[in-house]
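Technical note accompanying the year-one report. For the benefit of new consortium partners, we illustrate the data format agreed upon in the data management plan: each record pairs a sequence with a structure-token string. No post-processing was applied to the example shown here.
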Amino acid sequence: MELAIFHGLIFVHVITGSAAALAFWVPVLGRKGGINHRRWGRIFTWCVLLTGSFAIAMSLLTLYDPMGVHPLLVGRFDEPFVRGIFGWLMLHNGILTVNLGWYGWLCVTNRRDLAANRTALNIGLQYLVLLAAAVCAWEGVLIGQPLMIGLSIVGLATGVTNLRFIYARNPSPVQWMKEHLKALVGAGISVYTAFLAFGSIRLAPSLALHPVLWSIPLCVGLSLIIYHRIRIDLKAGLSIWPQLGRRTARASDPPSR
């Protein structure tokens, strides 16, 4: 019974994940704020939320019956490995994906009302991803998987930085845009990571835990975030390096008499 449910979850997970992976590039590469940006952004967000939710369900089934729902991995990996990678790590990544999708959507929806982001669901998702990251790191230590420890840092950083913006008192007028960008590109990174990494465990097990494979979506995503953050600052007339800008401004002030 569990295996049939698991196969059904894989089927819908692949469909929504593929749709999210394709929809991702329209708002990222297209003109910002236009009709296509908003339309495909909504499609991407809903696909991401569904994909992350299915991943959470799959991870919970794996934690319940690791080898029963992964019969193809029997004899290739032991139970602690399957429970760690397909259970705890996938649970962390699923929660992270839902967190980023929902947070990114609220950032643009409530761009003129920061307090509206302080909902029980949004705040709860931040603490949930922090908890999932801590558990993932601990389980990684127990089974000797540095990859789980490394990826948990992403969850910890996400929860901390999201909470910082949610409770910010005087954020920059364009900070909501940067947070929206960070979250939804981050969700895209999560989707592509799942396709490359979790899929490779079945197709090419020898490459599954290779750091380069896991780092490709992260490097591409971080490059996109940095590029668009610079564009946001330049368009708003802000210094790309705020600290340097403040020091330059102080140095150029006329001496007091």
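Partners are asked to follow this layout when depositing records. The two ends are 83 Å apart (CA to CA).
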